[in-house]
Amino acid sequence: MSDFGNVLKMPNVTELLNLLPPGVFDELKAKHGDIIAVKTKAGVFAFRTAKRGEYARFNDMLYNEKQRSKASEFLIRTCVVYPGNEQVSSVAALDAAIDRYPGIIVTCSNPLVEACGLDTEAEVGKGD
Predict the structure, then answer these.
(1) pLDDT in tens, 59-78
(2) Which of 41, 60, 81, 108 has its CB surrounded by the most CB atoms within 10 Å?
(3) Superfamily holding 10-80+104-115
(4) How far apart are CA 83 and CA 108, in angstroms?
């Protein structure tokens, strides 16, 4: 089972967005809504937040023993929006990066899950 108690803290997203070429953040935000950028060993990738059904499928995969190992990769492949161009899709660019640095799946998925609303420090009240 995934241990969400160890979800990495998101770095200062504003600073990372400055790593995108001029105008790219505004273009992506206009097209996709909320965007995060993650700097990896393979370069900077930008992700939109997951839609409700996409996040539900990610959760279903986490709790299915046979699919658990692919859950995080599913989520980042579903939500990646940069880099990419007319010749190479964002998913193809991410796949090439994963082939070289498989660890970036975790590097990207942890902040993406947090951007989708996971809050390990949520205030919780408990009655007697």
Answers:
(1) 999 999 999 999 999 999 99
(2) 108
(3) rbstp2171 (3.30.2220.10)
(4) 14
